Amino acid sequence: MKSGVRLGCESATARVEGEVPHNDTDMPELADEQPSRGKDAFTAGCLLLLVLMADAAAGLLVVLLLTVRALGRMEPGPGRTAADAPPTDWAPLVCFGALALAVGVTGVLLLRLGHRYIGAVQLALCAVVAGHALGAWS
User: Fold this and answer.
1) Which residues of 84-112 are buried (b: 16+ CB within 10 A; e: fewer)?
2) pTM, to two decimals
3) Which of 10, 80, 111, 132 could be bridged to 119 by S-S, CB 3.0 to 4.6 A?
4) Contact criterion met (CB below 8 Å) for 39 and 94
């Protein structure tokens, strides 16, 4: 860079002084490099496996939370007998609903990113979890 020339103005200065401006064809463009079909399938498979493992971990966390909560509700509270009906427990509905929402949002994001099959699997999983949440409601 010549002294007194601002950064970013080199090409204009080079044209004025008669120098050849930098040629951008020396560097390969990313658009020219197409990923191979096998590499794309491998990446999609790894992404599917990673997302399904994250969903399974979130599902296990919900089941663990609900199991611990159910263990605390096994004994009647003070002033209650075993014949009394327990109050409505909204925890299963909220837990499975939140899990369905997370899985559904992940599915929509994957569809928006162009992973159609992985997004479809996520949305199918979302429908199963949402159905289970509605079953826990009744």
Assistant:
1) eeeeeeeebbebbbebbebbbebbeebbe
2) 0.57
3) 111
4) no
